[in-house]
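Figure S4 source data
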Amino acid sequence: MKKILLIVAGLLVAGLIFPFAYGREQTWELLAGPADLGQVDFATLKRRSSPNDALQCRDNFCPAAIADRRGNLYHVGAAEVAAALDSGLAFEGNLVRVDNGADPLYRRYVQRSAVMKFPDTIDVRFFPLSDDQSAMAIYSRAQVGYADFDANRKRIGRWSDYTEDLPHDD
């Protein structure tokens, strides 16, 4: 019995040390695959059944999903909203843009948690409604785990705040 307890304890210690020795980012990729979960289509987006994602989207742009936040209707063009978001994201830590940049109205990022480096994929789509009216959708989802302690919901709120100074309706 004592031998079994020592083996179990050894495995637990090895499991705790491995991510730090091998690299936390590499460990998650080894266990769960690439951190970038790929592009979503907001028009057909279906939310996860697990509580580890968050969505900001106006109803008409995400008809198949229930959003956590509706998002603003901006009284400026989509390019200006994108520029405001880009300026705010310059202050975000552990953030890498992973899309190819070909679509000026779309961005995809991977952001990792500070300590354990859990990866989340975040899609942002800007919707031009006219030259001086636009909207923004944000979908943030965890790669690892069932729950995320509201990290994704907090992120979409924080990222929305980067555009708060632009003229908008709620």
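Figure S5 source data
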Amino acid sequence: MRVLAAVLLSSIIGLAQAVEVAGVKFAEKIDGPGDATLVLNGAGLRKLLFLDVYAIGLYLPAPKRKAEEILLLAGPKRVAIRMLRDVSAESFTQALIDGLRKNHSDAEMVRFGPRIAQFTGIMADIKEAKEGMAIDIDWAQGESLRLRVDGQQVGRAIVGEDFYRALLRVWLGLNPVQDDLKAGLLGAGS
């Protein structure tokens, strides 16, 4: 029985490992929102044609390998985006909106409208997602979505875990922005 427990424990511990993507190192564990310790679920590279746009890591309270489990998972989370090139705030948010549209009905998009506008406004204030910039999209249970740039909170918090889950669907939904990126965030190859 102890051997089985040891094997299970080592396989769980082995799921979360530090990962390097396009020169960006994602730590195995981080201090997340609400003083939570989060582990790296997976990471990947967002490409557009032949250009590397950003490296992204997904941090959760415990590793999950199915998108459905992650989308339903309560508790703190972090989407850690590290920009690999300069992208205008307009282009960055338009790509997110396109990803939302591919994974949500028209009625859902209308419901998310004010929060999409708030998110877009925060990014517009930033003006540009610059190469080397660290953009964290945090969720703290019972709180709200908080956007941090280079470690500093920007803009007001955006309420509603449904909107955070909607953003996660951009990368983990049925129509993800990039299939191999989804696989990376789910831990394939991590």
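Helices lie at 2-15, 67-72, 89-103, 106-126, 161-172, 179-185. Residues 1-15 have pLDDT under 50 and may be disordered.
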